[in-house]
Give the backbone structure.
Amino acid sequence: QVQLQESGPGLVKPSQTLSLTCIVSGGSITTTYYTWSWIRQPPGKGLEWMGVIAYDGSTYYSPSLKSRTSISRDTSKNQFSLQLISVTPEDTAVYYCAGGGSYFRFSSWGQGTQVTVSS
């Protein structure tokens, strides 16, 4: 049973960088074909897929966020991370990490972490 847990600050100031980490247990992030995504849900809105890092380290991003988003991984710690630069209050959301056996297959989710962008 793969489990994911997000961690990071709950409050970020405008123009700063939002950084979150997802710790994966019960499975390896390098397992063939597995992918690991970041997804967010702003208040009162639907889920928004942000980007993914695959088992081989390949990354893909939502076109609307590509210029501000970076996803990386630390295989020694079995975790992957999100960086979102130049945040604004519109980036306030619950941020989730999710994983699955192929692209856009989210069979395992973290519990989500609230991030508020405010001065």
The mean pLDDT is 97. The first strand starts at residue 3 and ends at 7. The two ends are 39 Å apart (CA to CA).
